[in-house]
């Protein structure tokens, strides 16, 4: 497919369809409504289904049911809606069911506002739902990357039989940009051994559950899940280095914020200032080693987020005492300007 | 002399298992007739059940079909995802009164209203069983429970919800019936209704719902025989048995 100008939400939807997703379950919430709208128009025409759920609580359980049959299914929502889905996410992880969830983040807490933010970092990477579980969290910073990561998300969901979240912010949902969306075959996964609806082929039934009343069984289940999360940490860490090699000031930022920071870095580089960045693409697993290694050479680490300092905690874990860390946050739907990031760096330098 | 087998375990009942249900509980009877229906319709290998949260959470230990566990109240949403992605499968939810008529009220109403081609078995025993006898949305007026120790007071908690009547106000559902497993004559009718509900799903008529008036000897504090007598004497007057909606009848 040639490059086309598309809105982020619609590009994500089309990318999912091109990756073989034919089933979408969702509930309206701003700023992601174009995803369900796009799906409702397209999916019935390709033999799939769009279901408008009665709530996000129901939507995520429909996704659980669809994923339980080993089918590529997806939902999207925005921050307060993801809160409602958190119960289901814990069950989906506990039952080891593949699913793709898009969160086009808006400003919180509570009803907050409909403008872009990154305030759901904790929720996405540290929990939301109950118990020891993890989501694989992918954070794109351009629409093309949102397209590519959405397609990759289906592979990862099936590889690990785990929910995968695309953590985008409202900018990425609402802006338009040229993207190229190709059919994505992805990896082949044999779902017959575990997915529901294959009793005839398998010769015996299967159960997908997270209930283990025997404590030894439940601990074993937790150990097994934990092994999987460790494997993600070994195999799935993704990040981008941007002029990080000789950076004296090392920025750590993700999503749209990282994209804005790139402009500031380029401007300062023209002045010969050694500024660079590590941009985590996977927020879980977080690139601790890369941040640690680069911070060793840096004189200062600057974390920039559209929240009050959430990823900051992971950066602190990675950096330790290697370099002083500053934080520059905005919230409520306010984005950083290139100028104010430059000013902040000059202040540090 | 030729032997005729008149009674055997259903094929879809797992071999050599005994249920964890309290003596005299209606779950066992309902499971049994559910298995008989699955056998008679020959759908064991393409049936997916959704186990609830509540006393029947472990029903997959007894009934030998594919199963998925649902969060409390969410079985109807799960059923939607299962059936939409695998319309060739027979999907049922099995839910208690707390699950279906309290925490999952939104999900059951919208499942019925979308007319998903699935079947719901709704066990109404007027109490929360698994958690130890708290007031349910279907607890009768004056009935004692651990969270209404003086008996349910309608001024504080409203009146018990009649789910069949509520769902029957919707235009979409194909079949809605209330039955009971309190006595053999009711059990025979209950099996017919459950079979019909599955037949409606198989023929693609739409959503089918069967409420089963059951019991809870343990949390009602009654002997099993007395408990089933109470189902008849106290529950049935408030929850009348019958068919509340039937596409076939409407078509006639």
From TrEMBL, chain A:
Keywords: Oxidoreductase, Pyruvate. It holds the Pfam family PFOR_II. GO terms for molecular function: oxidoreductase activity. Residues 14-230 form the Pyruvate flavodoxin/ferredoxin oxidoreductase pyrimidine binding domain. Residues 247-341 form the Pyruvate:ferredoxin oxidoreductase core domain. Gene3D superfamilies: 3.40.50.920, 3.40.50.970. It comes from the Bacteria. NCBIfam families: PRK07119.1. This is Pyruvate flavodoxin/ferredoxin oxidoreductase domain protein. The lineage of its organism: Bacteria, Thermotogati, Synergistota, Synergistia, Synergistales.
